[in-house]
Amino acid sequence: MLPRMSLNLSPGEQVIFQGHPSWRAIIGFYLKGVAIAIVLGVIAKLVGASSLTVFLVVLVVIAVTVLVGFIRRVATVYTITTRRLNIKRGIVQREVQETRLERVQNVNYNQSVYQRLVRIGDVDFDTAASGEYDFIFYGVANPEEVVHRVDQATGAGAAGSHGLGEPQAPN
Fold first, then answer.
1. Cα distance between residue 61 and residue 43, in whole Å
2. What confidence score (pLDDT) does residue 3 get?
3. 44, 49, 110, 130: least surrounded by Cβ within 10 Å?
4. Are 155 and 148 in contact (CB under 8 A)?
5. Which of 130, 4, 160, 17 has the alpha carbon at shortest distance from 84?
């Protein structure tokens, strides 16, 4: 089980999923950083820089890219509890999105061709609030498992058409 990320759980509330975007979700970011490093290295060589300077320019840009990508990934924490959804982003500047689980109306996941190849996806939680408050877990590994866990937590499989997790009394 993952360590709890300062979520202040209520009595009886349990974490059913907690994670970060997959490292595979930022491969594109890393590739762009490497491309920029190469371009800057070529420019440095064209203006007459020594081979050592060119190497250092490329090395520094790649190192900064790896560090920034890593920080962006680990500074984003997705949590689903038995009562709420939570997205925390940032280290110095913090952004937190949270909603109660019963406000979730639909849970879908999307995978582009690239995402299918690297086995990641975006899980989209449509909530009862307006569109600006919808929750999306970007770049999670095994997105269908996240959807399954939400279905289990809400009781959606047994709820029928009357709502999430609220079994109807027999007539």
1. 13
2. 47
3. 130
4. no
5. 17
